[in-house]
## 1
Amino acid sequence: MDYVKAMARPFTHPAAPDISLDNVLHALSDPVRREIVRKLMGSDRMSCIQACAAHPPSTVSFHHKILREAGLIRSEKKGVEVINTLRRTEIDQRFPGLLDAVFRAPGTSHP
Amino acid sequence: MDYVKAMARPFTHPAAPDISLDNVLHALSDPVRREIVRKLMGSDRMSCIQACAAHPPSTVSFHHKILREAGLIRSEKKGVEVINTLRRTEIDQRFPGLLDAVFRAPGTSHP
DNA sequence: TACAATAGTTCAAGATTACTGAAGTTTAAG
DNA sequence: CTTAAACTTCAGTAATCTTGAACTATTGTA
């Protein structure tokens, strides 16, 4: 596997019907990832570094990958940065009430 | 660590305020465990073997342990078997709408 | 045009966690 | 006392997580 090809490859996102509850719940079971999603619920476009500057870049990238492959966020390259958006309506259609319940719950910080 | 002491030790359950969203979401992210919970939503007392006879006993025990330590189920020994109950009202109070949303969602089988 | 800076990604390796076969325990029944 | 049923624990392997180091791609800047 080659760096050039790997970096040139655009992000892949699951189609809405392929978003699995397994992956969504797993993605949301991590507090760092919930924090990223919570921030995206407020401001709807955000680079990775805005999302969580406190962690090392490889960790941030890893968490975004999990969220992206679970179908929770959409990522696109915009110049040097990656802009992420929450796939809110798709998630709400497929799993009604789930995001609301998770982010209403205690255990997700509200600064 | 000794078998005798370990087996004699009763099950420990987290108190309601100590039930964490991390652990609950992680517990529910596995389809086998969701299946156990779903069955407990219907009939409110169930042994481990009733819950999932298809899997090896060590696996069933493992999944029940995860659910128990997450605070989703309560287990008590009744003779030779272990009876499990869903901590439904406690979970609903702490995380309103979460169980409903998860079990309304596609991805959890409804036989 | 070259050089450096920025914002990530990928890889690798150690650390943690998950799964399950084999062996053990406890209770109940014969 | 022996056997069976229903789990649990242990141990070893498999899969995931985390993060430093190296890399890429884009965007200034000299």
## 2
Amino acid sequence: MPANRDKKRDPHASLALLWGERDQPRRGPKPKLTVAELTGQGIAIADAEGLDAVSMQRLAEAVGVTTMALYRYIPGKSDLVDLMADAVFVDPPTVTGIPGGWRPQLAAWSRACWDRYREHPWLLAAIGMRRQAMGPHQVAWLDAALAALAPTGLSAKQQHDAVILILGHIRSVTQQLLDHDEAGSQEWDRLTADLLDRNSERFPALTRAVAAGAFAPTDDDPLDFGLTCILDGVAALM
Amino acid sequence: MPANRDKKRDPHASLALLWGERDQPRRGPKPKLTVAELTGQGIAIADAEGLDAVSMQRLAEAVGVTTMALYRYIPGKSDLVDLMADAVFVDPPTVTGIPGGWRPQLAAWSRACWDRYREHPWLLAAIGMRRQAMGPHQVAWLDAALAALAPTGLSAKQQHDAVILILGHIRSVTQQLLDHDEAGSQEWDRLTADLLDRNSERFPALTRAVAAGAFAPTDDDPLDFGLTCILDGVAALM
DNA sequence: CAGTTTCTGCGTACTACATACACAGTTCCT
DNA sequence: AGGAACTGTGTATGTAGTACGCAGAAACTG
């Protein structure tokens, strides 16, 4: 189920919810819950048991109401995931104070961003599950990164592209880490290595690379290689 | 959704299927179908209607059997998706003949890879849905990319990292294109721009970037910026 | 050739999930 | 006081994936 696209969503309602622009109800019984509470519980469940464990029924149980009561607060599950994905990006880093200019600043930003992804392994799937909806916290992160690049001579478009490029790299690395940490990944690796071995003549370059240790586990920083490459490339634009 | 992880899979069976290493049945009725046929039909459905449309029932209907008959050929849906994702990578490019060395060769490889992702928009979700399982065709692509980097002075590890980095970029760009092409994305963009406008003082750098046209649509090649940056960075390693 | 084994396709059934709908009770506004 | 707006709930629907067991078909065994 996975990587499902949403069918019918009301962008206006979804964004209003995400940005906290819904007007308070004036009559009726006091709401037992708040959107923030739901979001927090959703995050707690996802942190503990993964995104798949966050079902409407599970969440309802966690907050002590019936499943359908949740729909009084949230139009649908997609919106819940959006809220969760935005909420974990509270407290965007301020990097413009870091000495050394845009490069160490962007590096620090990247580390901070990557930390969030590592703290919440479900984030990647959550963001992959839906697109468009950027909340205020995610936007604040974007702002922080652009602030670092503002003093450089890059065009606005280049600045934007550079940040998106780095973000893509962070997500890629996160994905790789997830794969690696997954239960049973050793078994998969072993069996795949076996297959490569048995088909080595079909993949000469790969076989040589494997023999040379290209796939051997190291304790290098996973983010570093790509980040350095990208920042080198960005520097070359100036 | 989603982006679900699989619970229980038998790596040995899954990989054997993916690599075509299952032994033929010796008795019993002739099978009405083949795995290749299922894979092809799955791809056809996904191409036409998206990955979500590929359900076991839908596929069974398409090939003219009952749902449960499919399980005689495939352990589960994850394996089907694996097969589909590997099958679209038939005919890996040979780039070592391209003049100019590793750089134009890797660029050509990237374009070819990106083409596959664009021809099958569901590929990204399919690969995001499951990990570990690399099939022979995907491995052949990896081999082709490594072959381009083999003559350089890079270490095996660096070669590997560089290819993975580029692949991550290709996927990121694909993701962005998918978002952009999605129905209703204009509406989301418009509403988000509205929100930014109404909160411009909270995001000064972003507001300036937007004003300077950083988010304006261009007809630049989406892959180019990042690819150039990355290849520049890789060149700097030598 | 008869019996056994192995395999096929099928029907039924179970589970988990998101969510539509209508109802009863609660709070506020007029 | 009465109506409007809003809450939580119970019930129901549709769509998934897939477990299980059966009847018949093909091939191997003696």
## 3
Amino acid sequence: MSNTSSLSIETPGRERLRRRGDARRLEILRAAGRIFRQRGYAQAGMRDIAAAAEISSGNLYHYFRGKHEILYFCQDRTLDTMLQALASTRSSGGSALERLRQVLTAHVFTILDDVEGTAAHLEVDALPADLRTTIICKRDRYESGLRRLIGEVIHEERLPQRDPRIITRAMLGALNWTVRWYRPQGPASVKMVARELTDFLMGGLTASGDGGAAGAPGSQGGRT
Amino acid sequence: MSNTSSLSIETPGRERLRRRGDARRLEILRAAGRIFRQRGYAQAGMRDIAAAAEISSGNLYHYFRGKHEILYFCQDRTLDTMLQALASTRSSGGSALERLRQVLTAHVFTILDDVEGTAAHLEVDALPADLRTTIICKRDRYESGLRRLIGEVIHEERLPQRDPRIITRAMLGALNWTVRWYRPQGPASVKMVARELTDFLMGGLTASGDGGAAGAPGSQGGRT
DNA sequence: TGGAATATTGAACAGCGGTTCAAATGTCGA
DNA sequence: TCGACATTTGAACCGCTGTTCAATATTCCA
């Protein structure tokens, strides 16, 4: 966080200033996160972000090198939250099934929460190469942690072997997709959505291990 | 498709010309679809699309009113394919479970197929208002068709009641998310991905109807 | 209080990218 | 072959948007 080159001795005053700067920096990130979720990175203008943060557009550049960096820190913050949730369940001592449920629920909240929620971590492609590799690395850490957890569930519950990579991504897809359709004004609360989603992802639609008749491997309809 | 104002009588020659124009129009849409999937709508430039379609940038405007319209037709085509798949299973006479499996598989192919696949239908927000409403309407028709099918499955198989709207969107999320991670050069073929995904979505992770201990409604870790 | 460092502003800049356009070329029926 | 119409081109246009900058205001320590 502290990016100030520590050449000068930090007097108490300086310290307070820096703190105030960091606070403002966080406000900006929150505002940017909101705008990004509303319009997407490409559509969000610096002037929009500035307005949402209630400062002038030029002033943004006093806290960040540019739009890229704002996006970068948004993503970084979100991923940190998710990694933290992953880590905290690891020490919770529950069964793998319970821990997975906790992680999935936390994921929904991290994305959708109206105050702190961000979906910026979905726009990786918008980052320049150097920043992108850092983020992708962190994202992969989260994904592989989740994958390992899913692997544990499969092992503990003696479920039929499946490719955990694809299952992980299926879950991430279902979770991340919520930003595309969830609206706070809508009928469902974040809590309800998280509940229903995890229920579905954990339990699945059918009671049998294999989803019914393995129908029609041959192509049918449209252009399969 | 035929947008030519039908004031003039169509001579056989005109007809052939129009057909040739339509063929080119389709080539452009295919090329645009590829570019959109690679870079996303915002990052895709008209000059890129033109290059991919092997024509000059200015010439694009002889076939489409602008970038918006290209996206529009891409989305329209994709949705038509999906609606067709939905309709064709309806008359296939299989059980609801089988039909759902078919639709999910077809969905993956429609998105990921290397020749015809498009993911443009995910970028609804980029459209201007008038075009957007048309597309959203069609997309909703697909979604509600899928939702109905899922409802039938729940009813036929006597599964525990859940909110079909959220389940539908969970499935759509898992399916549509594939564009974010699937790479043709990667280890898995489209067929394998479709198979694993539908297996997961149909059968679910666990054998029991309710995914294990309903762990910890209380908040834990991170900022839930 | 004075002065140095920090914050803040809004106008100006720059270039990227969608679009337009006049001109050249190709196509087809008569 | 001629004329009408479709097709194609590439340069020029222009508005939008990220960014810069010089000037002004604010903050805080001595």
## 4
Amino acid sequence: MVTKKITSLEVAKLAGVSQSAVSRVFTPGASASKKTEEKVRKAATELDYRPNVLARSLITGRSRIIGLVVAHLDNYFYPEALELISNSLQKKGYHVLVFMASKTAGSIDDVVDEILDYQVDGIILASVAISSNLASRCNARGVPVILFNRSQDDDRFSAITSDNILGGQKVARLLIAGGHKRIAYIAGWEGASTQRDREAGFVEELKQHGMSLHAREVGNFIQDEARQAARKMFTANEIPDAVFVASDDMSFAVMDVIRFELGLKIPEQVSVVGYDDVPVSSWPAYDLTTVRQPANRMVAETISMILECIENKKTKPRQIKIDGPLIMRGSTRISTKLSK
Amino acid sequence: MVTKKITSLEVAKLAGVSQSAVSRVFTPGASASKKTEEKVRKAATELDYRPNVLARSLITGRSRIIGLVVAHLDNYFYPEALELISNSLQKKGYHVLVFMASKTAGSIDDVVDEILDYQVDGIILASVAISSNLASRCNARGVPVILFNRSQDDDRFSAITSDNILGGQKVARLLIAGGHKRIAYIAGWEGASTQRDREAGFVEELKQHGMSLHAREVGNFIQDEARQAARKMFTANEIPDAVFVASDDMSFAVMDVIRFELGLKIPEQVSVVGYDDVPVSSWPAYDLTTVRQPANRMVAETISMILECIENKKTKPRQIKIDGPLIMRGSTRISTKLSK
DNA sequence: TATTATTTTGCATACGCTTGCAAATACTTT
DNA sequence: AAAGTATTTGCAAGCGTATGCAAAATAATA
């Protein structure tokens, strides 16, 4: 029952070579003769030896670990992204150390400190902000930081987002073309760049057409608050005939209130548009018109960018916006004809 | 721009003490006088020093990393579990290294090998099986393995599940009490213990009441396949008046087919029961009767068990089943009165 | 075959930290 | 104040690996 650790030294002994030889066999770039390689591999499998990644990291200074900070796993966009990120990195020989930035945990700064302790090669912040103090700390250590689905007015790190401004504009155009007259908006958390950009594009485009928001509430990207917002908005005097909700997740809650609590018809009486295009949106029970955030492309950019930063320390941070299509479904009227 | 690494040695120099003193200040169990502690802390903050977890692990043999293998992140039960697991472990000073066992990656065995390379202190397999060969490898290294939401006929590792047999029984009783006569089942992946147990309990209880399955299809825990199954099942000659679906996730797909493709009423014409109680189930658009898997309690047990195994190597593996309540909602008839 | 160019190999060191041990210091006790 | 006890401290070794350097082995060339 004694757990004996197998080290490269033991393999070396068994194979009749030096420890360095073993190391070289298991180090991608290193050179070893066919003969020794064979001997070493044989001994290694016999002893069930595998190199200790931690010890290796200590020398190379590379851990092949990427820290991922994530919140809002309840919004399905993030599990999806997490899966894509983890898979892509796995293929490149990296692995993901997950850190939850949820309510329960301390501040993001503490979390990032813990991440740095693990000597991660890079950090991905999914929908999470970071203090500029911390940013410089990461910078000082040469650890690249990438924002995923969030941007920040700080050119020290790269950010990958969908084109939220453009997305907002598209929604506005759609609703205007559909002949809606009383267009409302339910906002996400106002500290989020995604929220700000979506609203900015939306409102701007309305303005271009001589319109403005008929109503506005804040849902903070939380379903409960979105429900409250919807109740307030749709029990007012003149209710909206269309509402753009800052995320699909909130949209579902809003639709439920509209249909099941207030008995209104979607889209005959109210059109609803969301943002994200999570899988549930396409389910017939919701059939939600929405702007797709192309998770796979966003992740692909994120990965290639972070790897680039790791390989080449002097890569300059970039901000990338990825255009996502408007997905037309049944939750919005498209003709101006109103059902009476 | 040169990235200078701060080591305990530099802190020691600045503080005017030995390197070991610095180490002791940052090692929980170690002793240091008030005076040195003060000096060291001051120097440390000045230099922005934090201990290198990897180097520490090399010595202590403890990485404070838990490997988590997870598939099916598209079933919302798992993101939820992941969040709980990560949070709980974070509080205990551990962190989660995530490995996806999805379609794209190789076999689980390869994945677990990669995990072991990181010298993890333990492994949690969420809804994933493991070969017995690999099991012994983990055992040999003294790395505890815990199955989450899956059990296996191998007493070498612990398994935490909900009481799926009992859950299946509860569903059967409910449907029988509701006066259903043609009771059907849509199965998950038949390799999964969860699937087998749910069905076993369900069928057994029907049998106790002199009934048997009116129809049965397999959905493999995949929505698309569940849809196919539902189409087949509900276009047959005599359609079921109740269907138990092995997971909520599949249930939604089934309900969509029943209502939107076939135009049947739930629960008037067909009662539907799911399993898991993911958040969507409570949304009014589905309002699904289901058996709750108490994720928080399951996670709590998982964590306490894995930590126990880590602290005390000779802890015997245990299989734990956690009872989960039947959550009555609107997708099932409760009276025997049939709507005509 | 002798000579040079090339590859392979082992030695020794370093990565940043913890920890047993013995020396040094601080605190008690009579 | 001296002896004894408890606590703190520095030294040095080692965790498992990668890698520069020089020596040894091999291949290539004349």
